[in-house]
Amino acid sequence: MRAVARLAWGAVHRRRLQSLIIGAVVLLSSGTAVLALALLVASTAPFDRAFDRQHGAHATAGFDAAKVSSADLAATAKRPGVTAASGPYETVSAQIRGDRMPLPPGLIVGRETADSGIDQLYLVDGDWLTGPGQIVLSEDILPGREVAPHVGDQVTVDVAGGLRLTVVGIADSITGTGDAWVWPSQVDVLHASGAVPGWQMLYRFASADSDDAVRASLAGATDGLPSDALTGASTYQAVRLRATESLRPMVPFVIAFCVLGLVISVLIVANVVAGAVVAGYKSIGIQKALGFTPAQVAAVFVGQILGVSIPSGLAGVGLGWLAAKPLLLQTASAYNIPGAAAVPGWTLAVVLLGVTVSVGLAALGPAVRAGRLSAVSAITVGRAPRTGRGYRVRRALAGTRLPRAVSFGLGTPFARPARTAVTLVAVLLGATTMVFAVGLATTLFRVVAAFDRTSAVPVMVGYRPPGGPGGSSPGAEPDPVAVRAAIEAQPGTALALGLTEVQANLGGSTEPLTIRAYDRDASQAGYPVLSGRWYAGADEAVGTSRMLRLTGTKVGDTITVGTQLGQRRVRIVGEVFANGSSATIVMSTDSLDGLVRSVTPQWFEVELTAGTDIETYVENATTPLAAVGAVPELTSQAQENQTVSVMLGLIATLTVLLSVVAALGVFNTVVLNTRERVHEIGVLKAIGMTPRQVRLMVVTSMVAVGALGGVLAVPAGWLLHRAVVPVMAGAAGTELPHSVVTVYHPLELLALGLSGVVLAVLSALVPAGWAARTHSAAALRAE
Amino acid sequence: MTDVVRLRGAGKRYETAGPPALQGVNLTVSAGEAVAVMGPSGSGKSTLLNLVAGLDRPTEGDVEVAGTVLNRQSETALAKFRCDHIGIVFQFFHLLDDLTARDNVLLPAQLAGVPRRDALARADDLLATLGLTGRANAYPARLSGGERQRVAVARALINRPPLLLADEPTGAVDAQAGTHIIELLRDLNQRGQTILLVTHDPALARQCATRIVEVRDGRLTEQVTT
């Protein structure tokens, strides 16, 4: 055993370049694998742990207090399929104002204990309510630490009379069942004059694996109640989706990159070992002549691979852990769970074990072949490459008009078909990575463009602060009518859409709802309609994909939208693709009647006439708009999507890493080929082949492999993109418009097809240079 | 007569601190001469041949072949020079296993950019001259030692080099094949081919060379005219 270990370790040192290649690919692939697994675990595990700990509600249902009684609701807890229920709790929608700033409108729930059977509230700060006059605020509605109300502060609940309550605690509800909680007998809030009272029930169901299952269970629980008693409901799946939205869309593509990386690594290891076996025929013969058993010979090869891959795998796991840590910290802070930021130990162990076993198995095939060689034939064959392969092709190439160095190079892959096949797959996967990455990046750019609607409304006009530089006179508010007139007077303006955004609540749900209301026909404002149609009048709206998923609303449903001024029933007639982290509906300002005191555009979106240069438009419009206290800017500069930026960064990093791994695969093959052919190269140089011709010969030996790999990579990358993007969209809680999924231009695919050649040529350049510098006299002495 | 090879104080040291492989060699080979370099194993014969072939560079002195001082040339220039001016016949033939006899012969012409038709005609002509017409499409593995060496000679001659270098050309063939090679070299020389031959076989040197020089411990010790 000691002899085997000594030989294996000696081989690691003697074959430093190959050891370095294996070390690099194992390090990169194990690092990527840790990152992928950590993201996969972190994207859902912290939420699931917090949900279990707080015994979260599968469904939070809101009811109209005028249509159903407390006793009716209590009876729903005994319905089939309901495993636990809490409530009914009295609710009211109202705005809470801190001394430093108002909070968004929210749902205030009358609740006696934090520690009820379902939705056990986690107190982040302070204590739970002990009686009337107190309020506990949800951590979710608090703005930044500087301006948020603290424990001990007084806040005003914006109901009739403006009631002052003392903040006694800050709590976290895992499923966001309320924005604030008051003592159940706080009737001046819960039964305030003019407010719309409601009931809330929290349920856990036997069947709750999916959003549909939860909604079906809820329908069963509320069966028999008046049909319009249920004003809305949110499910834990929707909350989970919202909680994990920043990480989950990354998981599918990181896993795709990880699998590609692992496969390339395994292929490279197999190639390295097969090359080591060929180069070490003589040593194998000597070992066997000395009495090594076939198993011991195989163990030497596997040992030398594991000797490199285990420390490299450990280093890769460490690097992956470091890369994953910031992403996990971000998630963990959202759930107040100690230890959630740590990459689970089993993840690291699984990656290390998986990578080690994979490369070990990859090494085993050629190692076993080495063990089976007969001593005599191994010594006889020595280091000379086996002949008899690809003669016809090489001869045919020799007969062409191609320069001899080129025809020599093109024929090289046929001499070692197995090695060529493995290298081809490495190039194929590397080029597939590039095709996939380019498609993914294009998709994300188009998502951003579709979110921002830069092509439809390329210019936005906002108001300058009064008295600000270039603004209107001190103290004067900009006049929207004058601003619109100034925009419409500007050459190139096709349409100025005044936009009013209102924060509202959705009946029966704590999910914040954003209303975007346009004062003109916004059907051409660039919202891709995914299903249904654009709204046609008052009381119709389109919902964003995200809104539909977060609230369980479907096209055709009628929802209840409320503000502190009143409620309105709105029918969702279509699904659109739009940005915004919150649930958003888009409708006409006509539908805002009763929800806001007056409709005043907060900014304008400007459609331009065909052929108008956007930047020139903005430049020309700046002065006249400044005169009325407004400022134009490019839509693309006004928006930012942090998640997309992080994803683009991750895609770029992983693509570079995988391209490096694939390049190392080609590099390794060229090194093996040139080392095996060192004598032949020496002869060629001796009879007059110039260093440049040698370089050309070696580089062209990989051109055909690169070209074929690139050609095959185009459909492979295309298919991978087609498979992964919808999964990402699902994880992000949205449908995608066709333009975002169909991203490849035929010319772009053609160019991407060449990526295999570029990868192969670049990887071959260095060993080609080494081959060109081969010392003929020394190479000939190698005979 | 024009000098094809001229070595002036040429020497080679592989390790700075080690003993020289070759030192202070002065040698001239005129056009049409056949010079045999003799000496025991390790004496520096092959080093001398490598210097003349431009496969190695002298660490001292000058090596001039066909009017070109080789030690001042780049690797690329040396390769082109070899292709055009020097043919080499190796002891172990150094044919490329993956090419047929004809393709092996064609190789230097193809590297030199000779039109394919001309190169083919020349190759077939050489193969015929050397009695290898029937073996033109055979791979080296199917050829006898003597046939392989004749293919190597044909390859060395395809570009009509002014200088033919032969390194132990009979060292790896049987006696009968060796005799054929000797006759071939002598015939070539009689037709004007300048030859520099490295061997430790006195019979080969006597039969092929018009002049014999001896190398011992890296020094040229004796010049004999046959």
TrEMBL record, chain B:
Gene3D superfamilies: P-loop containing nucleotide triphosphate hydrolases (3.40.50.300)
GO molecular function: ATP binding
Residue span(s) of domain ABC transporter: 5-226
Residues annotated as transmembrane: none
InterPro entries associated with the record: AAA+_ATPase, ABC_transporter-like_ATP-bd, ABC_transporter-like_CS, ABC_transpr_LolD-like, MacB-like_ATP-bd, P-loop_NTPase
SUPFAM superfamilies reported in the protein's UniProt record: P-loop containing nucleoside triphosphate hydrolases (SSF52540)
Record key words, sorted: ATP-binding, Nucleotide-binding, Transport
The keyword Ribonucleoprotein is annotated on this UniProt entry: no
The protein's name in its UniProt record: ABC transporter ATP-binding protein
Organism: Luedemannella flava
